[in-house]
Design brief:
The chain is an all-alpha fold. It folds into two domains: 2-43, no CATH class; 54-126, no CATH class. Helix content is 75%, strand content 0%. It has helices at residues 2-12, 17-30, 33-43, 54-64, 69-79, 82-96, 105-126. Helix 1 (2-12) packs antiparallel against helix 2, helix 3 (33-43) packs across helix 7 and helix 5 crosses helix 6 (82-96). The longest helix is centred in the C-terminal third of the chain and has 22 residues, at 105-126. It starts with a helix and ends with a helix.
């Protein structure tokens, strides 16, 4: 997942087609096929059926973080997108995580996100 994130940031950070092509070549030469397939899928802008609503995503985030709800809501008022607010609030946490134990892209797409969908109604009903 970290490698895909770096690839996305490299592509997003430049307007040079040559730099984008070099970043893509390097990624796909080194990446495992299971992750490469999902990277292509995501980079092409393909979407899956929405597995998690923004409300459920927000509720799960609030339950697993130390962020108070009022702070989340204030940030949301400025940003306007729950997923973006969460990614911005998690930036420091992610930057501090030096472990390479982050699950691979294919694990996120095939296992973790669907599991969150399965447990989200249970978490949501407790609030």
């Amino acid at each position: 997942m970290k490698r895909f994130t770096r690839l996305f940031q490299q592509i997003d950070a430049t307007t040079s087609t040559n730099e984008k092509v070099r970043a893509l070549q390097a990624y796909f030469q080194e990446e495992k096929p299971a992750n490469a397939v999902w990277a292509i899928y995501l980079l092409l802008g393909k979407t899956r059926k929405r597995l998690i609503t923004s409300r459920v995503l927000r509720d799960v985030f609030l339950q697993i973080s130390d962020i108070p709800e009022w702070l989340f809501e204030d940030c949301y008022a400025h940003v306007g997108d729950s997923a973006e607010v969460i990614s911005l609030l998690l930036t420091d946490v992610v930057a501090q995580a030096e472990s390479d134990s982050t699950p691979a892209l294919h694990k996120w797409m095939e296992e973790i996100i669907p599991q969150v969908k399965a447990i989200a109604p249970k978490l949501h009903s407790k609030s």
